[in-house]
Design brief:
One of its GO terms (molecular function) is rRNA (cytosine-C5-)-methyltransferase activity. The chain has 487 residues and is an alpha/beta fold. It has four domains: 2-111, no CATH class; 126-212, 2-Layer Sandwich (Alpha-Beta Plaits), CATH 3.30.70.1170; 217-426, Rossmann fold (3-Layer(aba) Sandwich), CATH 3.40.50.150; 445-486, no CATH class. It contains 20 helices and 14 strands. The strands form two sheets. Strands 6, 7, 8, 9, 10, 11, 12, 13 and 14 form a nine-stranded mixed sheet that branches. The longest helix has 23 residues, at 327-349. It is globular, with a radius of gyration of 26 Å. The structure holds S-adenosylmethionine. S-adenosylmethionine is lined by residues 217, 236-242, 259-262, 265, 287-289, 307-309. S-adenosylmethionine (SAM) is lined by residues 217, 236-242, 259-262, 265, 287-289, 307-309.
């Protein structure tokens, strides 16, 4: 029983935020550290499922009150683990409920339309802090068309409900789990299915016609939007979902140079790109920071996607939420990550012909998101932010002027994983000279009040409008000065 008592005690302390799992396991003095750690990690992974089963089986009712966290570790081992391994006074209570617990597990699987335990965990992942995450499916236009895919699913007995008009419609749709689907309202070629839909064995998926990709992770390539035939770098590319999206956007014409440090991930990427029909890529197992911007090979690179390693704090994982390091451990990790993220974006901005650089993370930490962008803008005055996808509801945290040009994503606001995206654009020579003038002016302390033009100038690019209207602002300033001189 010591195993379960100790594990339950650690779950209590985790809820009180007294430390990370590993620390608490070592501090517990329990002799078989590995066994205890494994039991805790798995119980946490199954936590939402176990809580549901405990509730519906009414296990905690009755004269002998079993504490919740003790019930959780016992139910885990009974239903999903190796079976109850030790005795103790609670063992008989749990075993007396065995049939009921097993029946509730079976009922839950039927309700969630899944056949195995792993799918049950995935399908209930979203219930941690909001609606369930739908199953997003990107139609790979390198291999098929939206029309063909719609026809295919209709033939499979699915009802096509058209294009969603709001995120609310997607949330309402997510509550149903029938055989129906929608087209997404923000991302072209993205379909939305009920959360528990499983496509891993679907023939269109295995043939690379469909890519299973979260909606938020489709944003970087969509916003970078390289023209057909352009030269693009994917700086931290593996396993390659964004590379294959970029390839679809450039229609396999032009070149995508894709770098990654991790050999194994790069090998997986190679297989995935082959399956997706990508042919315009050149993969390199190389540190992006060592790729020379002066190399003639990259002279035509006009668009760069930087999706570097991050804390992953936007990913829905109950275990990670509960086991996240606390205090200084986490600060140190975030500092190291954001230092790399700054270096990677800075490096991208040094490529001589680059016009657009998109930066993304699946982190919800300001240190990895807005703070990185703010520093980059200060260090690279030749670049400005583009106000992307104005209809997107969740914007960058208000931590510097223009931060609203960035996008944030979350389960509750956008029905996606937690995500962050910023798009940098090189200033035009005219804009550059006016911004230099502005700088000189402020250096000479010209104390003239600038009216800020709030009207946003429509850009020729599809998903953006110009954010910091320094050009029109300075033009008006000049006009005002000329008028004063005349008077
Ligand atoms: N963009 C990928 C996708 O959509 O499939 C996911 C990229 S993942 C968030 C970050 C990747 O950066 C990891 O595969 C990691 O190996 C790679 N990485 C980390 N440091 C790197 C570096 N200095 N140069 C190149 N790749 C790096």
């Amino acid at each position: 029983m010591a195993l379960y008592q100790t594990a339950a005690g650690i779950l209590d302390r985790l809820q009180q935020k007294e430390g990370a799992v590993k620390t608490l396991v070592y501090d517990s003095g329990y002799k078989n550290v590995r066994q205890l750690y494994a039991l805790l990690c798995e119980t946490l992974r199954y936590s939402t499922v176990i809580e549901e089963i405990i509730k519906s089986s009414e296990l905690l009712r009755g004269p002998k009150k079993l504490p919740m966290n003790l019930a959780k570790v016992l139910v885990y081992d009974l239903l999903f683990g190796k079976g109850l391994q030790c005795g103790g006074r609670w063992k008989s209570t749990i075993l007396a409920h065995r049939a009921r617990l097993q029946a509730e597990l079976a009922k839950l699987k039927v309700k969630k339309k899944v056949s195995n335990n792993q799918d049950l965990v995935t399908s209930m992942g979203g219930s941690l802090d909001g609606p369930a995450l739908p199953r997003y499916v990107r139609v790979n236009t390198l291999k098929t068309s939206m029309d063909d895919v719609l026809t295919y699913f209709k033939r499979q007995g699915y009802t096509y409900l058209g294009k969603a008009r709001s995120i609310k419609e997607l949330i309402d749709f997510g509550q149903k789990s029938g055989k129906s689907f929608l087209q997404d309202l923000h991302i072209p070629n993205l379909l939305v299915f009920p959360p528990s839909t499983d496509f891993h064995k679907d023939s269109l998926y295995t043939a690379g016609h469909l890519i299973l990709q979260d909606k938020a992770s489709c944003l970087p390539a969509l916003l970078l939007d390289p023209p057909v035939g352009s030269c693009v770098i994917d700086a931290c590319a593996a396993p390659g979902n964004k590379t294959s999206h970029l390839a679809a956007i450039v229609q396999n014409k032009g070149k995508i140079f894709a770098f990654d440090l991790d050999t194994k991930r790069l090998a997986t990427m190679s297989t995935l790109l082959l399956r997706a029909g990508v042919t315009c890529q050149e993969l390199a197992n190389q540190d992006f920071l060592t790729v020379s911007p002066c190399d003639p090979k990259y002279q035509k690179v006009s668009h760069i996607l930087v999706d570097p390693s991050c804390s992953g704090s936007g990913m829905p994982d109950r275990m990670r939420v509960l086991t996240e390091e606390s205090g200084s451990d986490q600060d140190e990790r975030l500092q190291a990550l954001s230092a790399f993220q700054r270096r990677a974006v800075s490096h991208a901005l040094r490529f001589p012909s680059v016009q657009y650089v998109v930066y993304s993370t699946c982190s919800i930490h300001q240190q990895e998101d807005e703070d990185v962008v703010k520093d980059i803008l200060e260090q690279h005055p030749d670049f400005r932010l583009v106000n992307v996808l104005p209809m997107w509801p969740a914007r960058g945290l208000n931590t510097f002027p223009g931060s609203e040009c960035c996008l944030r994503a979350s389960l509750s606001e956008t029905l996606t994983n937690g995500f962050f995206v910023a798009l940098f654009q090189r200033r035009s020579p005219e804009e550059k000279s006016t911004s230099e003038e502005q700088k000189t002016a402020s250096l000479h302390q010209v104390n003239e009040e600038l009216e800020v033009d709030s009207s946003q100038v429509q850009s020729k690019r599809k998903y953006e409008c110009i954010s910091q209207n320094s050009v029109s602002c300075t033009k008006r300033k000049r006009k005002k000065k000329r008028k004063t001189d005349k008077d």
